[in-house]
Amino acid sequence: MPVDRSRIRVKAMLIALSADGSRHLVSSNPPTSENPLGYHRLVGGGVELGETHRAAIVREVDEELGAAILGLTYLGMIENIFRFNGELGHEIVALYAGILDPEPAAEGGSLTESDGSVAPVVWRPVDDADLDVPLYPREANEWIRDAVARSGDLLRLTSSSPCQCRR
After folding, report:
1. Scanning 73, 115, 137, 164, which has the fewest C-beta atoms within 10 Å of its C-beta?
2. Residues with Cβ < 8 Å from 66, sequence gap 6 or more?
């Protein structure tokens, strides 16, 4: 059966902060035709039929990283239109911030995708102006910088909600 390329996907993604708020966890992905050095992507994934985006981010983080989210805070929605190896993609992303418990290792961490594949995860600096590897969705950069500028520290966003969210 042919793939329906006109479909808009709904995703839930997390700005997963380090304990000191200077870095956030991202998956490290291989090169594409658009990104010969590879790219970083926020942690998260697809919203399943009948599932809220809040439930989806909690489930995805549990499945991919075996972690709970402390101070899960909804930030807003991003519409992401992109190309991946020449193919047009379109997704609506519910963006959250939070702290992972347990926090993944400083180096050598990975996440397991729903298809069983394993992707490395890295701690990307919040101040990422010197990095050549782009972060997707691109608009998340503005959310990260705006939140830091408004609050002085992304941790304040997450500490406002002390719940530990796990499926």
Report:
1. 115
2. none
102 residue type, one letter:
P
pLDDT confidence of residue 5: 54
42 token code pair = 């926020």
pLDDT band at 151 (very low <50, low <70, confident <90, very high): very low
CA 165, 18, 147, 89 torsion: positive or negative? negative
Q: What angle do CA 42, 47, 50 make, to 5 degrees?
A: 160
Q: Which among 133, 123, 130, 124 is positioned nearest to 32, based on CA atoms?
A: 133
d(CA 57, CA 63): 10
Residue with tokens 């503005």: 142
- At residue 148, does pLDDT exceed 60? no
As given in the structure block, the two tokens for residue 16 are 């997963």
CA distances from 71 to 34, 159, 161 (A): 35, 5, 4
Give pLDDT tens digits for 153-162.
555 555 554 4
In this structure, are residues 89 and 4 in contact, taking their beta carbons and an 8 Å threshold?
Answer: no
d(CA 155, CA 24): 11
Would you state the pLDDT for residue 106?
81
